[in-house]
Specification:
Layout (H helix, E strand, L loop, with lengths): L13 E3 L2 E3 L7 E6 L2 H14 L5 E5 L6 H10 L16 E4 L5 E5 L6 H6 L11 E5 L13 E8 L2 E8 L1 H10 L5
Parallel strand pairs: 4-7, 4-8, 6-7
Antiparallel strand pairs: 1-2, 3-9, 5-6, 8-9
Length: about 180
């Protein structure tokens, strides 16, 4: 797929499919068609093994597109029970401890940048783990914060996951052949 065009410096980040991206930080798109929840689980687990610790991941897509299902598979790679992982729609942030901690945020109910600042999200340093944020596309202020953005879209017979991210992150994913160009 084509690279994103550069944004005009005075106009800030580009928006593509409603997702704010920084064209200097984000690179080409990789994608995969997912037919079943088991396949979603496999993709999540493989990505979890390939991504470097400390990666901040945005998860975009409509309700029911598979964002929390993805987090369950991702976290299970690090010994966190799928039953433990729940959507933090009302708690805003769930932290799962373990050898590789996972911080899972859901910004669906957050309306303003001021509310976003009060959530403590920016204090949740993934450090030796990962930060996964649902609905980051609601805030252009997160465009430079994320290392990888996964976009989940529903299709008739499954889901499509598209990935945009920093060059090094996408290189790792492309080499592992989890998602393809």
């Amino acid at each position: 797929m084509a690279r994103l065009a550069a944004a005009h410096p005075s106009k800030g980040p580009l928006t593509r499919r409603g997702i704010a991206v920084n064209p200097e930080a984000m690179n080409t798109c990789l994608a995969s068609f997912i037919r079943t929840p088991a396949e979603m689980d496999r993709v999540a687990r493989r990505l979890a093994k390939v991504l470097p610790k400390g990666t901040r991941i945005g998860l975009c897509g409509e309700l029911g597109a598979g964002k929390t299902t993805f987090v369950k598979g991702f976290a299970s790679t690090y010994g966190i029970s799928r039953d433990t992982v729940t959507s933090p729609t009302f708690t805003i942030i769930n932290e799962y401890s373990g050898p590789t901690p996972i911080v899972h945020a859901d910004l669906y109910r957050i309306a303003t940048d001021e509310e976003l600042a009060r959530t403590g999200l920016f204090d949740a340093d993934p450090g030796s783990g990962f930060l996964l944020i649902e609905w980051p596309d609601r805030f252009k202020s997160l465009a430079n914060y994320l290392d990888l953005v996964l976009v989940f879209s529903m299709k008739k017979n499954g889901r499509v996951i598209e990935a945009r991210g920093k060059k090094e992150i996408l290189r790792r994913i492309a080499e592992s052949k989890i998602l393809e160009r």
